[in-house]
Design a protein that fits this description.
By secondary structure, this protein is mainly α. Helix content is about 65%, strand content about 5%. The protein has one domain: AF1782-like (Substrate Binding Domain Of Dnak, Chain:A, Domain 2), CATH 1.20.1270.90.
């Protein structure tokens, strides 16, 4: 979960879509924190969704994260 937390903290939004994707990532990350130790399967699912929103934002050019492992923007 620490990789996802670091990505959220470093994310810079490029536009309104980036703001929305980052909000969803933060919301799912909070869910993951809540469920950790209570329902680990649900926690894993939530962090996977959070990171998926981050990846989508970076790949679509709506988020920028310095040093992030996905650097190529699709369609550009």
């Amino acid at each position: 979960m620490s990789i996802t937390k670091q990505a959220i903290e470093k994310a810079i939004t490029i536009d309104k879509q980036g703001e929305l994707l980052l909000k969803w990532a933060k919301d799912y990350y909070k869910d993951a924190e809540y469920y950790t130790g209570k329902d680990d399967a649900t926690a894993l699912e939530a962090v996977a969704y959070a990171h998926g929103f981050i990846d989508a934002g970076v790949l679509l050019g709506h988020l920028k994260i310095e040093g992030y492992h996905l650097k190529e923007v699709l369609g550009k």
